Each structure stands twice: as C-alpha cells, then as structure tokens.
Request: fold
Amino acid sequence: MPALNRVVVVGASLAGLHAAQALRRQGFDGELTLVGDEPHYPYDRPPLSKDFLAGPADAGKLRLRPAADPDALGIRWLLGRRAVGLTRHELSGGEVVLDDGEAIGFDGLVVATGARPRALPGMPEGVGGLHVLRSVDDARRLRDAFDAGPARVVVVGFGFIGAEVAATARSRALEVTVVEAAEAPLARVLDAEAGLAVAELHRGHGVDVRLGATVAGLVAGEGGAMAGVELGDGTVIEAEVVVVGIGVIPNTGWLDGAGLTVDDGLVADETCLAAPGIVVAGDVGRWPNPRFGRLMRVEQWDNAVEMGGYAGRRLLAWSRHEAVEPFAPVPWFWSDQYDRKIQLAGVPGPEVAMAQGTLAEQRFVRVYHRDGVVVGALCWNRPRQAIQARDLVGREAPIDEALRVLG
Amino acid sequence: MRVVVDFDLCESNAVCMGIAPEVFEVRDDDMLYVLNETPGPELHERVRQAVERCPKQAIRLEED
Reply:
C-alpha cells in the first residue's frame, strides 16, 4: 500500500477545510498541512456579497466553524503563502513549491485552490474605483467604496455575484446600473425566460438594467479616479464605482508542467482522483459526474462542502486500496436578492414546466426536464420544494411525479 | 443530543430538511420547524450532517 504519512491541502477555504476535517474524522493521524494564499483562516464567502457588504458586519463572524479553533484538527497552517509549483515523484507523492521557494513534501495532495475573478479584457490594473469580489479583502474595499456614497455604481456582468452586489447596493440606497453582454442575465445558469425574470426583479427595485450591452472601456477622471464606463454603442454611464463580475478562472497555474490534465480546472476521474494520491475539490475541480454523464465544474458552496469531504475520504481510500462510489451529487445553490430566495436544484434542461406560481408573481417552482425525467428545478421563495426537487432529480423521477410533488 | 437552531441566522434554505426530514421541516410559510429537539441515536449521524451542511451555520448540537 502507498504510505500516507503526510497530506498537503492547497487551498485554505471551504473545500480544503472540509477535506482536512474528513481526513481526521476517518482516522488520518499523520502530518496535515493546509496552505492558503490569503492571510486568513478559512472563512465563508456567501455573506461577502450580502450581509457583509450591506453594513458593518464583523469579519470574525465569517470564520468557518470547523476552523473556529484552529488547533482542533491538528493542522499545520501555512497562511499567506501561495503554491507556485508542483513536483511529482514517479509513482506517487512529491513536493508543493511555495512562493518563497520552500518545498513541502507530501504523500497525498488535495488540490483546492479555487478560482479567481475574470478581468475585463484589456482592463488596466490598479484603476481607482474598479472592483472585483471574491475575498474578504475585496469585500472590505468595496464596502468602503459604498460607504463613501458614490453617485452611481456600475456592475459589469449579470451573474449571481453581479446580481447580489446590485441588490445589496440598492439596499444601501445607491443608484445602480447593471451591464450585461448577453440578452438575458445568468445565461450560463438559467434559461433565458427565467433569466429575464431576474432582470425584472431588479428593475422593480430601481436598478437600471442594460442587456445586450458590451463594455468598450473605462472612463478615467481627474487623477486616475473612476469616472464611468463606456459601452460598445458609445453610451457613457457615469459612475465612481465599477464592480466586475464576469465569472471566474480556476487557479491551476501552479500545476503547469506536473503532468496533470488541466482544462478549465484540474480534471479528475469520477472519484475526484486526478492522479495517484492527488484528489481535487471545490471550484477548481472538473470531474465526470456520472449522474449527468458529463464533465462538471461546480462553483457552489454546498458542492465545496460535499466534494471536500468526499476528496478527503477518497485520498484515504486510495492509500488503503479501498473501492469507492463515484462522486455523483445533485448540484444545489441559493442566492438571496432583495426579499427573494432563488434556489436551483439540479441543472436546467431543454423542457420547462411550472409546478406552481408564475414568473411574474416572483414566487414559483419551475421544473426542467429531459425525455420525461426531471433534471432540475428553479425555485423562488419556495425552499421546501427546492430540497424536494433535489431528491427527485437524484431519483430521476418522471416529470409527472415531480409536478405532483412540487405542485 | 439536543438540537438548537439560531433563528436569527436561519434563512430557511431547507438543506437540513433534505438530510433529516424527521427532525427538520420547512413549511409553506418558509419557516423552519424543529420536529424533534432530542432525536434518538439512529438519527444522530444525519443530524450532524445537517449541522455541517447548513449554509448559515445556524444549527448546533448540545451533546448529553
């Protein structure tokens, strides 16, 4: 059996922490090192675009509970240190190289380096008033910018981050314009009709929504301060704060040259094993989910918890030559915008049916199906049905049953 | 084991209900109801999972 005495987890966030916790729970008593490029203990990101941004919330409250007592799991924390390289030994094991040149040897490795915000093409760095939102430090900067009372905030990108930032900015009585290149919000996640319902929700709360609008460039004011955004049609929207939320890029650069398969994330097998003794978890991981028969990379809170725990157990099973079931979750996420709780269980499908409510009511259960089988459900202020839908998708229930249960 | 929910934190995401419906129920008023505050040993593992998977960390357990 391959010896598993030293495990390194790269990525001190939700997935990495849950991998570490699972390793300890399953009896791993060797050396466990967690490397994180931020100087903070693992914290919760969903509040960053909501409560934390809305008011004087305490960053301490963001700490993830398994890390409440940093000594509890017997972890060697290497925080504020970035992994820049990976060297692998012939059969398994190797070293993680950190930004200061130190090499950390491992027998087993958990890759949980997450993702970083995508920048606008051609956008200069260090422009005043230009923001992204991923880390607590990003959130603090943006909150400070909101505190200064800008005349207008422009959000570029109508994904979930953009939508939540816009909602929070409106809750602070700021004027907001959202600019989205696609003809409907959330085009990567929802069908167009449902996406347009999100646009209506925001318009109803006073957001200036511009769909099918590209960004040509930023307009600089005096002293390099932000003055606004120029759209592709020449329109200029004056704004002192611009928040870019146009998706993320998986953090895989440090894996270059290590002989792993990287393609929009670190690609693993259906058990999250990327190579002997190397598992992947969270936003950075792409694996064939047998339930949906395709490669998936899931940028969701619940997936980070579940995949982290799974990856920790998988690594131990590898060292013990034990067989494991494939990782086959039904994705689920939530997004809070104004007084709406938006939840998607499963994935959108080619056919749509309303189990209850209407898009206009903004309280509904919208079921996606394929070949007579339910594959997902979008629920607005219907949390009970979202969780029931998750179960129905997991059981591959017929659409008739799904409409009956969720109706 | 006693189940304690911080209702100031709870946002009725209903994840707990999906894992342990014998203990947690989100009703059509969108509120969470704890059906059994002292679940038996056969439920402990799933209740612990529900605690872990709560996106608001709103559930905690007081062990006997």
Q: What stands out?
A: The mean pLDDT of chain A is 95. The first strand of chain A starts at residue 6 and ends at 10. The domain at 130-246 of chain A is CATH 3.50.50.60 (FAD/NAD(P)-binding domain).
